[in-house]
């Protein structure tokens, strides 16, 4: 093969065995973005080379395919080009860039190396679903139409100054900024404001003198010409902001990185300070101070109105900074200049200094580093496997709920039944380190997840009882009975029934394969009804025994559904005993978010109208999904609205409520056991309907209560239930109850225990 040398490749910027897809350059016009990139040659690629560039929206999982053109190629690499409309790119929040190439069935070993995103885009909740030992590389998928393998490559980049290539989408007015992630991948962030501040060099000597060199840049004229600029050190609330002197220089060396349409240029800065600033920091207790570049608008009234502040961040490729100095000013203290692991933002930490305490902390950090090393983790897994051959503790039962984060759900109900009725068993909870305090305060026996004691407990236990998947690497000994209790009646499609999986760090084929591998370890699987049994067996590829007895967690909805217990619960929750209670428990919206893992919820229910109408006779309890990032200000509704979003046991809220308002949340399956009225506030049903293709049944027809779109309709529905004495007269509800709740009568825990133990 031949290639004409039209595109110049810098030394070190060609594809390698590990980094197979490398970004080369970007050129933008007013409406389009042109990307050039290189792909390592593989003789097994299907000829002519086919595939596409794939943009994946990090928060929503939305995918955008762009064709490519081959500019040049030789026996080492291809040079490819793709053209993207700016208007489409501007519709996202953060785009990660991949290349999909079709290949024959047998590919060479070059493609066995890591070339994935390494999980950078994972959201908290989704990452919890991933196996902790899954390889970083995404496996190949097969194109059903062609029968060819589709190989997926994360686009890498070595360019440090990509942010200077920011462009403005003419339609939305938003800024599209390319950047190099901390792991050396190419991504694009779309945002309203465009300042960029980066630190390139950092130094701190033993006397505490700090020097920072970097550059600042903004694609907005006002931020370059009108706003005053300063670098500030900001401490905890109550401490005074300190302005640091800095020098500004022109950076002609950055010219190659600008887009032709970009009229503004980056300026370099140098900031120096030392004991005169650090000596004033707090010395009696640990404090953290942050460094910001500040644009100040002195003409806008109000304190700091219109100001912009950007944290000083290291360029992604720079290593972690951790320098310190011992100062004897305003008390002896240790001052540390460090960069945060993920954001690379620079912070200064000041803490009282003690030689002995400092050495103890160093030892602790060293031990933690050893503990978290790959070698230690591999050794831990081998010991876990070998521990399974030790004598079994057949009376030991290990419980876990939602990856060790909660004391809840079906494992809790089974635990409480066994505690009362099987004193011969030893009951221990597997608990995430961040949740230990809750178990200690409640006096519940636990073993810290992934500790040495946990390892031997899990390996030798007679039973595991959990409601979610365990890490795939955990081996189950032959003497262990694995009781999977799951955590809900399926509304959305599960595992093998899913057409596509958009979870970060995996793909459809890999997700299903790993799910089925985990499910093959289960000995028993609980089911709330025949409907769920059929789905579970198919979706989980589960062929062992299904314990179809209802959900143990719903027993309390029968055993505690009496006047005495409900009155006691209202007293415990500090809710008025003489008023009706409305429970509002909606789900979150996939397309409403602030950023990665940070969802928001716009409260469409008009609390003013509800308070005006029902304030004398009712109160409303809000139970938001834990993914929602809002903190609702309910002060205008004091005495009427209560926020119980972080209350541990939602069953208590079910029991005290007289009517529930929800939307598409699966809470209605459980609440139906109480045979109390439900209202489905589906104000966005038209837009949400398109997302219902992954549901198992027609929600609009099966929902066991009225569907309403406005607060006025909510009021009318409550008044209708009130006039009926809160009794339900509905064939749809009766049919729903008979289909989903017929097994639950307060004895599911007993039946499950009798079957499995």
UniProtKB/TrEMBL annotation:
Major subcellular site: membrane
Q: Where in the cell is it found?
A: Cell membrane
| Top-level taxon of origin | Bacteria
A cellular component annotation (GO) from this entry: plasma membrane
Keyword tags: Cell membrane, Membrane, Teichoic acid biosynthesis, Transferase
Q: Where is this region: Disordered?
A: 105-150
Which one of the record's GO molecular function terms can you name?
A: CDP-glycerol glycerophosphotransferase activity
Biased composition, class Acidic residues, residue ranges: 106-147
Query: How does the record classify its membrane topology?
Result: Peripheral membrane protein
A Gene Ontology BP annotation from the UniProt entry: teichoic acid biosynthetic process
Q: Which family does it belong to?
A: Belongs to the CDP-glycerol glycerophosphotransferase family.
User: What's this protein's name?
Assistant: Cdp-glycerol:poly(Glycerophosphate) glycerophosphotransferase
Please tell me the species this chain comes from.
Fictibacillus macauensis ZFHKF-1
């Amino acid at each position: 093969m031949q290639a004409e040398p039209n595109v110049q490749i810098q030394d070190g910027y060609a594809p390698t065995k590990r980094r197979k897809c490398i970004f080369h350059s970007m050129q933008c016009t007013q409406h389009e973005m042109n990307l050039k990139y290189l792909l390592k040659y593989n003789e097994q690629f299907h000829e002519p080379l086919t595939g596409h560039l794939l943009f994946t929206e990090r928060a929503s999982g939305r995918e955008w395919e762009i064709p490519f053109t081959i500019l040049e190629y030789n026996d080492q690499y291809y040079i490819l080009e793709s053209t993207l409309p700016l208007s489409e790119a501007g519709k996202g929040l953060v785009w990660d860039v991949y290349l999909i190439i079709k290949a024959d069935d047998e590919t060479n070993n070059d493609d066995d190396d890591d070339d994935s995103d390494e999980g950078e885009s994972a959201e908290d909740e989704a990452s919890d679903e991933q196996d902790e030992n899954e390889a970083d590389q995404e496996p190949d998928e097969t194109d059903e139409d062609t029968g060819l393998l589709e190989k997926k490559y994360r686009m890498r980049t070595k360019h440090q100054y990509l942010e200077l290539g920011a462009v403005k989408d003419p339609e939305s007015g938003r800024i599209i900024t390319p950047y190099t992630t901390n792991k050396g991948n190419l991504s694009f962030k779309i945002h309203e404001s465009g300042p960029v501040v980066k630190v390139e060099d950092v130094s701190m000597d033993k006397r505490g003198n700090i020097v920072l060199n970097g550059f600042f840049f903004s694609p907005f004229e006002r931020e370059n010409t009108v706003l005053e600029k300063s670098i500030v050190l900001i401490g905890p609330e109550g401490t005074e902001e300190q302005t640091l002197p800095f020098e500004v220089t022109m950076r002609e060396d950055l010219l190659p990185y600008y887009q032709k349409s970009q009229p503004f240029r980056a300026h370099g800065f140098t900031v120096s300070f030392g004991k005169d600033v650090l000596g004033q920091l707090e010395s009696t207790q640990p404090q953290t101070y942050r460094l910001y570049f500040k644009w100040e608008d002195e003409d806008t009234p109000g304190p700091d109105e219109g100001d912009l502040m950007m944290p000083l961040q290291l360029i992604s490729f720079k290593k972690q900074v951790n320098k310190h100095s011992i100062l004897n000013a305003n008390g002896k203290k240790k001052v540390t200049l460090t960069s945060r692991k993920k954001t690379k933002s620079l912070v200064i930490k000041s803490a009282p200094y003690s030689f002995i305490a400092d050495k103890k902390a160093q030892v602790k950090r060293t031990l933690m580093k050893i503990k978290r090393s790959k070698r230690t983790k591999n050794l831990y897994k081998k010991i876990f496997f070998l521990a399974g051959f030790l004598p079994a503790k057949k009376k030991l039962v290990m419980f876990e709920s939602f990856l060790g984060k909660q004391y809840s759900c079906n494992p809790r109900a089974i635990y409480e039944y066994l505690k009362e009725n099987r004193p011969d068993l030893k009951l221990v909870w597997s608990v995430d380190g961040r949740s230990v305090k809750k178990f200690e305060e409640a006096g519940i026996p636990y073993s810290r997840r992934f500790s040495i004691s946990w390892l031997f407990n899990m390996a030798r236990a007679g039973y595991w009882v959990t409601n979610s998947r365990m890490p795939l690497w955990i081996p189950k000994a032959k003497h262990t009975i694995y009781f999977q209790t799951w955590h809900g009646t399926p509304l959305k499609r599960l595992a093998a029934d899913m057409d596509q999986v958009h979870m970060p760090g995996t793909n459809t084929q890999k997700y299903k394969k790993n799910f089925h591998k985990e499910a093959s370890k289960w000995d028993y699987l609980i089911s709330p009804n025949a409907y769920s049994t059929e789905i579970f067996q198919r979706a989980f590829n589960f062929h062992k025994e299904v314990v179809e007895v209802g959900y143990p967690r719903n027993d309390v909805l029968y055993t505690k559904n009496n006047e005495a217990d409900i009155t006691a619960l209202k007293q415990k929750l500090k809710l008025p005993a003489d008023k009706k209670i409305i429970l509002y428990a909606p789900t979150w919206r996939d397309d409403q978010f602030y950023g990665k893992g940070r969802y928001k919820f716009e409260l469409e229910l008009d609390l003013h109208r509800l308070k005006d109408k029902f304030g004398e006779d009712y109160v409303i309890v809000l139970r938001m999904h834990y993914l929602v990032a809002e903190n609702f200000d309910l002060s205008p509704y004091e005495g009427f609205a209560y926020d119980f979003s972080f209350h541990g046991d939602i069953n208590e809220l079910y029991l005290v409520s007289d009517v529930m308002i929800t939307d598409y949340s699966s809470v209605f399956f459980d609440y139906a056991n109480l045979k109390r009225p439900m209202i489905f506030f589906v104000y966005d049903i038209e837009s949400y309907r398109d997302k219902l293709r992954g549901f198992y049944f027609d929600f609009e027809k099966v929902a066991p209560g009225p569907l309403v779109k406005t607060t006025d309709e909510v009021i009318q529905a409550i008044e209708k239930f009130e006039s009926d004495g809160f009794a339900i007269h509905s064939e749809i509800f009766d049919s729903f109850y008979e289909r989903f709740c017929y097994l639950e009568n307060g004895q599911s825990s007993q039946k499950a225990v009798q079957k499995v133990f």
